[in-house]
Amino acid sequence: MHIDARNIENNSLIEGDICIIGSGAAGISMALEFINTSHKVILLEGGGFEQEAAMQELYATKQTGQRYFPFKAIRLHYFGGTTNHWSGFCSVFDEIDFEKRDWVPYSGWPIQRKDLDPFYERAHKIIELGPYEYEDTYWLKQQPALKPLPIDKKVVWNKMWQFSPPTRFAKKYKDAIVNAKNIHLYTYANVTDIQSNENVSTVKEVTIKNLAGKSHRVRAKVFVVACCAVQNARLLLASNKQNPKGLGNDNDLVGRFFMEHLEMKSAELWLAKADALKFYMWSWGTKARAELAISKAKQEELKILNGTASFVPLDIGKNEPAWIDIYDENGKGDLSKFDEAEKKRDFSNKDIAYQLMTRIEQSPNPNSRIMLDTEKDALGMPRVHLHWELMPLEKRSMRKIYEVIGKEMGRASSGRIRLMEYLRDEKDETWPALTGGGWHHMGTTRMGLDPRQSVTTENCQVHGIHNLYMAGSSNFVTAAAPNPTLTLIALTLRLADHIKGTL
User: Fold this and answer.
1) What pLDDT is stored for residue 338 in this prediction?
2) Is residue 383 within 8 Å of 62, Cβ to Cβ?
3) CA distances in angstroms from 96 to 201, 327, 345, 479, listed in the order given
């Protein structure tokens, strides 16, 4: 059932069993789990079914620290959320990503990889992936003509990626949500406040507003905030009537540990013999490909972060602009820069030279954070202030990754690695202008067993508030190397099972 919150009587009271705030990957995945159950689900979407400038303006953000993308360009404020423009890159986190690593401050999840395996497999169906297989041997058997690089897997290994079509949640699941008798989808229903009881142990209701001037209240037994890592933190911080610090923020942790993936050009690979490296290439329609990753033992030895290296033909990669350079402060992108790069292609090194692209986790850093700005948006909500801060560990890890790959290429007489200039000086801790991320936001309501070190429990419940849950990548303790969508959906499905057991 669909209801436009602009068209119902002002100050309406909406009631249900479960209130899901946000209809992106996490929110829709959660709602799908309750279709045709006895539970009445209220699914709240701030926008409509199409992108609108006025809704995007609500995401305008103040930024300090390391330069970052304008949020108005990279987050989409309508049904389906940012799945409306995601690229479909998917891979699982490694076992080491969940472990406490003494060289990575604030690392260590309260769950292990094995706890997510059954939910990863279920998530595959939602985003239309292939079999739950991430061993390179499986994929090489499917396509025997593909050849991997001659690497020692005890040092460097082939980490597999699978690719969603990509699934556009708005298109794929709109009918299922709207036609479900027990799912009540409200569009133009921006949650601006969460009210709890006096001792802040139970959420009583949330306030929703829209640009038509309407305001409503929603009451439920369980509330799930699934707005994305940035907006999850924003909403908790802004809900400060009962607790001046914001909900779940007794220990000043909400919004801290904002993490991104660093996705950057980093090196060149020059092969001894021409090789199209088809096992490592991607184009639209690719089902799976490999990227080079560093083994757990080598990460432990070198005390580095987890990351991968992907390949682009050098005649393409060297001229392409960094993604962060194509957007202005208003979120408008100039894609013509890619057309200009295409005109400069040089095919003389075809299948010999490759641009190596890094995808690496950001180490958890409490100073990298989401805060509230003094300026308010059109609905009266304080705007987001992002302070993105990187650490020397990220840059040292990037350099070491290519040193390891370079030594492995040399050992096998396969080729040579040439670092980009910004990685050559070990004492240089500055970041180049091309520094950017993957539009992956994580960590702002991190999970853990200790309320003094985390915002949510191992079941994504806000510490001390028994009916308030966070869904999505805001729960991540560390970022790992893979794109977050597959893991955040798996974590959401795990949360859905937990809620089913509590109702």
Assistant:
1) 60
2) yes
3) 34, 35, 39, 11
* pLDDT given for residue 73 in this prediction: 86
| C-alpha pair distances (Å), 203 with each of 40, 220, 230, 425, 498 | 17, 9, 21, 52, 18
What is the pLDDT, as a whole number, of residue 384?
98
Helix (H, G, I), strand (E, B) or coil at 158: strand
Q: What is the pLDDT of residue 343?
A: 60
Name the token pair of 471: 């869904």
User: Among candidates 271, 305, 311, which has minimal Cα distance to 414?
Assistant: 271
- Given a contact cutoff of 8 angstroms between Cβ atoms, the answer to whether 359 and 261 are in contact is yes
How many Å apart are CA 267 and CA 354, to the nearest integer? 9
pLDDT at 214: 98
Angle between helices 485-502 and 113-126 (to 10 degrees): 100
Containing 159, the helix (H) or strand (E) segment is strand 156-163
Token pair in block for residue 319: 């001229």
- Compute the distance between CA of residue 146 and CA of residue 141 in angstroms, rounded to an integer: 9
DSSP string computed for 207-275: EEE-TTS-EEEEE-SEEEE-S-HHHHHHHHHH--SSSTT-TT-TTS-TTBS-B-EEEEEEEEEEESS--
Give Cα 423 to chain centroid, integer Å. Answer: 26
What is the structure's pLDDT at 322? 79
Nearest to 388 by CA among 403, 368, 402, 373: 368
Structure tokens belonging to residue 476: 């991540």
**Amino acid found at 172:** K
Domains in the chain and their CATH numbers?
A: 1-86+168-254+442-503 (3.50.50.60)
As given in the structure block, the two tokens for residue 183 are 């799912």
The answer to whether residues 430 and 394 touch, using CB atoms and an 8 Å cutoff, is no
pLDDT of residue 319: 79
How many residues make up the chain in this entry?
503
pLDDT given for residue 347 in this prediction: 63
CA pair distance 209, 376, nearest whole angstrom:
14
The three state secondary structure string of 7-75 is CCCCCCEEECCEEEECCCHHHHHHHHCCCCCCCCEEEECCCCCCCCHHHHHCCCEEEEECCCCCHHHHC
State which residues of the chain have pLDDT below 50.
Answer: none
471 touches 285 (CB < 8 A): no
Separation of CA 353 from chain center? 31
Which strands, in side-by-side order, build the sheet including 13-15?
A: 13-15, 215-219, 203-209, 190-196
Furthest C-alpha separation in the chain: 73
Token code pair at residue 103: 């060289």
- Report the distance separating Cα 130 and Cα 132, nearest Å: 7
356: tokens are 């190596």
DSSP-assigned states of every residue in 160-183: EEEE-S---HHHHHHHHHHH-TTE
Identify the CA nearest to 123 among candidates 497, 493, 378, 391.
493
